[in-house]
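Give me structure tokens for this 123-residue protein.
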Amino acid sequence: TIPLALPVLPMVLHEETVECIHYRHFDGGLFLALADNRTLTLDLQERMEAMTPQTMQALNLCFATKLLSFDRESGELRPRRLTAPIRPQEAGVRDILAASQRLGYWFCTINIEQLCSYLRIRF
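Here you go.
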């Protein structure tokens, strides 16, 4: 959903968060990452609020280029493409993409109330 898109940029553009989650397993990885590093949620609410304009611009760009679609009935954002468009050579970019894939999986499989509690965020 659109609210769940709001913490994505603040997390994948936060080096410490990316370093902690990019290599985690999809199942249970978020819980292990939060248990290993309790500072991951530190200032996430503030970063999310500060980056809301960039997130909305990114979503507009994704809709305009048809990378994402929005299902009005369910309120879900859906990718139009299931394969990665590029295979980046730079390790930092690969880590960001891996972290974003994991966040997408976790955000789709954990209910919003639990996510808000674990990440200490509110909408």
